[in-house]
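agent> Task received from the user: take the single chain below, predict its 3D structure, and emit structure tokens. No templates, no multimer pairing.
agent> Plan: (1) validate residues, (2) run structure prediction, (3) serialize to tokens, (4) report one or two observations.
agent> Step 1 OK, no nonstandard residues flagged.
tool_call: predict_structure(input=
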Amino acid sequence: MRARWLPIFLLLLLSCSKREQQVSHDLSEEHVRDTLRVAMLYSPTSYFVHKNRTGGYDYELCRNLAEYLQKPLKVIPVESDPELYELLDDNQVDMIAYSCAETRELRQQYLQVFTSSEDGMVLVQRQGRQAVADVTELVGKRINIRRGSPFQERLASLDEEIGGKVQIVLASDTLLSSELIEMVADGQIDYTVAYSQTASLYRNYNRQLDVRVQVSFPQRRGWVMRRNTPLLYAAVSEWWEKVDRRMVGSLEKRYLRQNAYVSSRAERSLPHDAISAYDDYFRKYAPVIGWDWRLLAALAYNESRFNPQTVSYAGAEGLMQLMPTTAAAYGLDSVTVFEPEANIAAGVQYIRHLQNIYRSVEDEMEQQKFILASYNAGPAHILDAMALAEKYGKDPHVWYDNVEYYLMKKSDPAYYEDPVVKFGFYRGGQARKYVENVLNTYQKYLTR
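)
tool_result: status=success, residues=448
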């Protein structure tokens, strides 16, 4: 009986021995390999060369990992998603150092270390009254996406979900998502899809972009390795657990929230003498109030830094930072208040209202100072300061050293309890500084 099972036992033993040799061979190869080879997708956030300097979130992290492993780093940049996996599958690289979204297929075929926060896909479009507010409105729309990218698969699924009438235009797989975003900003195409993190970064420098419509749920994203390289996976996982989180946070800020490469590209897209992406709107509406358009731009800059999506702690919204009641008074709602042209037009109408309040200030430049102060503080406290100036023998139609002086006195009970004061206590330092800041910005703009 024993002799009967011996051949089978020897066969099983030989089979196990071969598998162990194969695994041992794989582990040994990756263990002794003297260079860490990684594939990276060339992009403004992951890996790029700018002004003769190599940078990027994934690149900087890889440098840190290579130091941790005490191995030289070799980067093989590619221009398309499929190339990343081709290099990995052909054993030409040890891993993909790019934030690939986790999917069921990816989990089945590869190992993954999640080096980025969860991120979903969003629609990238220009702001305006015709902007899409929901994915169901994409029926009949042309959406340009990179061939072979994760966005192609997601849009195909979305197309089925909403009735199969989305016009998916496949761009070259070498055309970066960032380049498609720039094409949307420049008006060359109407829509594309990108990860929210990248889209939000570009919106920081291209304020006409709208990236609010979600196309997918958030997914984990990270670096990818072959399943037959468990030693490398264990080492990368160990490194990621030990890595300095302050360093990671600094890289996220430098590349994912603020990015000199993206900023420089955005600046180059504007004429050299441009102040903002909204100069045409400032030129269009400044004549309504008789202002130099650059003064109107200076006001907007000091209000919002030209960010049409910003909301202040007090609730002021948009480029011109209009309070909801003011915005509503000039015909804006919760959507149109964030449209650059509509917000500027409403802000100009509010300035016209202030001009009417200060029509007794005949000198145009002096009136502008009163209006700027009122734009910041509201007219009530400025009118109180004018009343105090007149009572105490100062000129109520001159700002510096006259009305400005008594605005600062409104924090003193001897003045804010004066019978001519109707609106009580106020600290005037912020409004005074605001007038100075806007006028200083205006002077800088005059030299462009």
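agent> Step 4: summary for the user.
Residues 1-29 have pLDDT under 50 and may be disordered.
agent> Done.
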